[in-house]
UniProtKB/TrEMBL annotation:
InterPro entries: Alkaline_phosphatase_core_sf, Sulfatase, Sulfatase_CS, Sulfatase_N. Residues 26-319 form the Sulfatase N-terminal domain. Residues 1-19 form the signal peptide. It comes from the Bacteria. Keywords: Calcium, Hydrolase, Metal-binding, Signal. One of its GO terms (molecular function) is metal ion binding. It comes from Rubritalea squalenifaciens DSM 18772. Belongs to the sulfatase family. This is Arylsulfatase A.
Length: 472
């Protein structure tokens, strides 16, 4: 009897401590567009694009003027947001690669502190089949209705591994599903974390007619591209309105961003080049943080990237957590809250030279639907990615294939290693040369050597993670 009383007391103490931990925790919503460039918003004086809801959000929130994606393509950028690590550490090198199943993710951490977790929209960090080690469940999500990659009108999505057809525009569907989750958690007084990851404005661009109004003279391709952003913008307005109707806007952090820089010949990028490159245009993204009553409206010019989101969110939520693996991200919470002057920190980028993995989401989901209608499931270990093994890459000492960069503002150093091992360097002063047009490696030798050594040290650290050292 004494033992039973002791166990009961311990259990009640646990429940009370958990309730205390949950009380006062902010809800967290990470909203991300797909291939929206730094200037693909009206508030950055786009000549024709209409984004009234993002404009209003920007006017009432903190705009991160120098926000960067952690990678110039989608999958690695997404992995970085969920892990707080540069994507090569998590073996997500290029588009279509999986995040390593041994990574510790933001939803996994938040679940430990009483959060309900949900993912809605594009995944692209593994497969969406049941029992896959790289699906959203494995990454810590309680609920998910997701697409393997980009998706458009009337998509087939995976509802925790069950192929389900939906009607409507992809952005509308994504937000509708997310709002259903949010409303249920709000009614239950349950703090929640949700990622709302759009499939727009990734190609192929297919906007509804109503969203192309005003863009018709620009040609069908551009009208569809801009129309997808306008549709996405409207659903951001629906989210903000719903939070206010529920009376939880002051208890909720909403962080909007894009997954990489803008599209060539379509998007308005934040500098030289476009998606797929490590120059400014391939990395700079729109980024807005809203938390009414906590985060003041304004503009921050602090350079920050996707790796910073995990430690920042945890600090904003008042969670002290010891990470399992080395983080690249640094919390900017105090800057976000206006508690201290922004302190720039170096940002590393490494676009590894290895092929991506193609993924046609609708085709994949239609095949799953037909299989399940016949009473079957995917069992092929290769399709499930059951081994969890990453794509094989070289980890030869002192060799870092591809295009990497080290940003220690105002300096940005590029290292480009060809397939044959030839290395070239480029150094730019972004404050004076935001388009990265004048290489200063020969003129600024002292700065070049210091930055070069810091960058090489970082690359070596990342390569150590790529060898699996973090999981031992």
């Amino acid at each position: 009897m004494t033992t039973l009383r002791t166990l009961t007391a311990c259990f009640l103490t646990f429940l009370l401590s958990l309730a205390a931990a949950v009380a006062g925790k902010p809800n967290i919503i990470l909203v991300m567009s797909d291939d929206q460039g730094w200037g693909d918003v009206a508030f950055r004086e786009h000549p024709v694009l209409k984004t009234p809801h993002l404009d209003k959000m920007a006017a009432e929130s903190l705009v991160l003027e120098q926000a960067y994606a952690s990678a110039p393509v989608c999958s690695p950028s997404r992995a970085s947001i969920l892990t707080g690590r540069t994507p090569n550490r998590s073996t997500c090198y290029r588009h279509g690669h999986s995040m390593h199943p041994k990574e510790e993710t933001l939803p996994q951490i938040l679940k430990k502190y009483g959060y309900a977790t949900g993912h809605f929209g594009k995944w692209h960090l593994g497969t969406l089949y049941k029992n896959s080690p790289v699906n959203p469940t494995a990454a810590g999500y309680d609920e998910w209705i997701s697409a393997p990659n980009f998706f458009d009108i009337d998509p087939t999505l995976s509802n925790k591994g069950v192929a389900t057809q939906y009607k409507g525009d992809s952005s509308e569907i994504t937000m509708r599903l997310a709002l259903d989750f949010i409303k249920r958690q709000s009614a239950a007084k349950q703090p929640f974390f949700t990622t709302v990851w759009y499939g727009s404005p990734h190609d192929p661009h297919k906007a509804l007619d109503r969203d192309k109004v005003g863009y018709e003279k620009l040609g069908q391709h551009k009208a569809n591209f801009l129309g997808e952003i306008t549709e996405l913008d409207r659903t951001v307005g629906e989210l903000r309105a719903a939070l206010r109707e529920l009376g939880i806007e002051k208890e909720t952090i909403v962080w909007f961003c894009s997954d990489n820089g803008g599209l060539k010949n379509l998007g308005v990028t934040g500098g030289r080049a476009h998606k797929g490159t490590v120059y400014e245009g391939g990395l700079r993204v729109p980024s807005i943080i809203e938390w009414p009553g906590k985060v003041k409206a304004g503009i921050s010019k602090l350079p920050t990237n996707g790796s910073d989101m995990l430690p920042t969110v945890l600090e904003l939520a008042g969670i002290e957590h010891q990470p399992k693996h080395p983080l690249d991200g640094v919390s900017i919470a105090k800057t976000v809250l206006g508690q201290e002057k922004a302190q720039p920190h170096p940002l590393g980028f490494w676009h590894y030279d290895v092929a991506g993995i193609g993924c046609w989401g609708e085709r994949e989901m239609q095949a799953l639907l037909k299989l399940q209608q016949a009473g079957q499931e995917v069992t092929d270990p290769k399709q499930l990615r059951s081994s969890g093994k990453p794509v094989k890459v070289s980890t030869k000492a002192n060799s870092y294939p591809g295009h990497s960069a080290w940003l220690d503002y105002p300096w940005k150093l590029h290292r480009i290693e060809s397939k044959k091992g030839k290395v070239s360097w480029e150094l730019y002063n972004l404050a004076l040369d935001p388009m990265e047009s004048k290489n200063l490696t020969s003129e600024k030798k002292a700065e070049f050597e210091a930055l070069k050594q810091a960058h090489l040290n970082w690359l070596q650290s990342v390569q150590t993670s790529m060898k699996g050292a973090d999981y031992e």
